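Notes from the 1:1 (GR / supervisor)

We went over the backlog. Supervisor wanted to see one worked example end to end before approving the batch request, so GR pasted a single chain during the call. The sequence is below; no edits were made to it. Supervisor asked that the structure be written out right there so they could see what the output format looks like.
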Amino acid sequence: ISLAVVFCVVIALAVLWIRLRPGSARQSTSLAAFLRTSDAMGVPDDVALAIHHQLERWMADSGQAFAVGARDALSRYGIAPEDVDATLGLLLAACDRRTGDAPRPPLHTVAELMRYVASCPRRENA
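Structure output shown during the call:
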C-alpha cells in the first residue's frame, strides 16, 4: 500500500511540475492567435508564418519549446542586437524578400521584426 501511495505522489508532482513550469501558460497561445495579431498589424500571412515557424524551430532546437508571441523581445529567442542582421538574412530569404534602400531601424520585438520584414520589397526573379 505504501508503494502505491508513493507512486501516486510522484505522479501528482510530475503533473504539477509540467503544468507550472515557466512557459507552460504560453503554450496556450496558438498559431491562429499569432496570425490574428499579425493581421491586425497589417503583416501578410507569409511573413508572419515564416517568422513564427523559424522562431519556433529555433526554440525547439534549443530544447525550450514555447509559443511565439508578437510582443516577445527578440532576446527571448537568443537573438542579440548583433545577431539581428544574420537573422534578417534568413527570414528575408524565407519570405522571398530583400532589404530595402532605407536604413534598418532598431528591432527589439517580434512585432517590430515582422513589420520590418513586411516592409521590405519582394525579390525580383532574375
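Supervisor's comment: The helical segments are 2-20, 31-40, 45-61, 84-94, 110-119.
Batch request approved.
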